Amino acid sequence: MIKRYKYLFFLVLVAVVFTGCGGGGGTTYYGNIVGTVFYQDTGEPVVNAEIVIARRSTHTNRDGQFRLDNIPADAYTLTIRHPSILNGVWTEGVTIPSNSTRSADFGVPRNPDSVGGTGYYIVIGVDYPSGPSPMSPRYDARAVYEDLYRGNELAGGGRLLVSSGGQGTLEPTKSNIRSSIDEAIKWARNRNSDDYLVIYFSGDSGQNHLKDRNGTWITDGELEEWVRTFPGPVTLILDGNESFTFVDGEELSAQAFKKWDYTVLAGTLERQSSGATENSDLSWFTYHLLRGVTTRSADYNRDGDITASELYRYTDEAMKLDVHQTPFLKPGYYADSVVYRYKR
Predict the structure, then answer these.
(1) CB atoms within 10 A of CB 211
(2) What is the pTM of this model?
(3) Is 343 in contact with 259 (CB distance < 8 Å)?
(4) pLDDT tens sequence across 53-80
(5) How far is C-alpha 171 from the chain's CA centre?
(6) To the nearest whole percent, how much of the chain has pLDDT over 90?
(7) In a domain, 230, yes or no
(8) What is the pLDDT, as a whole number, of residue 133?
(9) Closest by Cα among 162, 253, 234, 170 to 203
């Protein structure tokens, strides 16, 4: 009797295996899909859009490109999700071929709320010569990258430069900082004057200069030269000692970053040091900066855009209550350039 049950179990198992081959007992064939997602109006790539097909998902890269492999050959509805897309979602019918790769481009309509440019973010954290500590610039930079870039519903692209940052990060060297700026300029390749660039720096700084991981100076004139060809507003946020001096007019070179069409938000005045909070891993300035963003409290006019001037107002008011440290804003031509945008 036991042998008979074992034999019946074996037959059931064989039936299940053959049924699982797909197509009513036939062989299941697989294919791949590669594609690019872009805005219909400008041709800009849609960065970090979610792609869903056949219960599989991925995200587009900085060029709006994606790839999914080993999908059962069949006809499907491909779904694209991103806040900058009209209604947040776009669908198209696609057919996955057998044993080959389907290539397709997808033009999607832009969400009217996102009109006004795309934001690009370069976030830099340079630890002090003594190395990382429980409260160090690398933690400032990581938090800014998460909240100001990843938490920004309509951001376009971002780059994090911190030491030992892991996959996807770069060491905060002078050459990497410059190449990241070049990359942002390439991202804004449609030359849209509404696109905006935000550079955040936390670390060792001094009179009219910043220092990279190796202690190499980056002067105001050098940084201005690097960002000069970006087509839209540029905002520099500095969290370091005496960061105000970067734009105080006492430049170290002929092309200073005090140029009229740049906005600079600095966390300290001359002879002031950047202090650390007691209850977090962040500096005082960065702590309040991010609090103004994440709580939306810095959006004083409630229009869904948090600007450099609004962040200055918020951090100035908050830090007067906490520390003897004074933020400073050089408004320039783009005083109301966007730093953070969210859907209302």
Answers:
(1) 20
(2) 0.68
(3) no
(4) 999 999 888 678 999 999 999 999 999 9
(5) 17
(6) 35
(7) yes
(8) 59
(9) 162
> Do 96 and 183 sit in the same domain of this protein?
no
> Which residue has better confidence, 344 or 329?
329
Co-location of 40 and 138 in the same domain: no
Which secondary-structure segment (H or E) carries 37? strand 30-39
What are 37's strand-pairing partners? 106
Q: Could you read off the pLDDT of 267-276 as tens digits, one per residue? A: 887 776 666 6
CATH of the domain at 45: 2.60.40.1120
Using the 3D structure, point to which of 86, 111, 136 is the last residue of a domain.
111
**Which whole number is the average pLDDT over 320-327?**
76
Task: CATH number of the domain at 279, please.
Answer: 3.40.50.1460
Confidence at residue 131, expressed as pLDDT on a 0 to 100 scale:
58
Q: Using the structure block, give the residue that is written with the tokens 């911190």.
A: 162
Q: 233 and 180, same structural domain? A: yes
Find the angle CA(65)-CA(66)-CA(67) to the nearest 5 degrees. Answer: 140
Pairing label, strands 217-219, 119-125: unpaired
Same domain as 128, residue 89: no
- The residue range of the domain holding 220 is 116-341
Q: Rounded distance, CA 60 to CA 47, Å?
A: 6
Q: Which amino acid is at 109?
A: P
Is pLDDT at 113 greater than 50 in this prediction? yes
Q: Could you tell me if 125 and 141 are in contact, meaning their C-beta atoms sit under 8 angstroms apart?
A: yes
- SS3 category, 207: coil
CA distances from 195 to 118, 133, 198, 199, 288 (A): 5, 36, 10, 14, 25
- Residue 69 lies inside a defined structural domain of this protein: yes
- Residue 288's identity, in one-letter code, is H
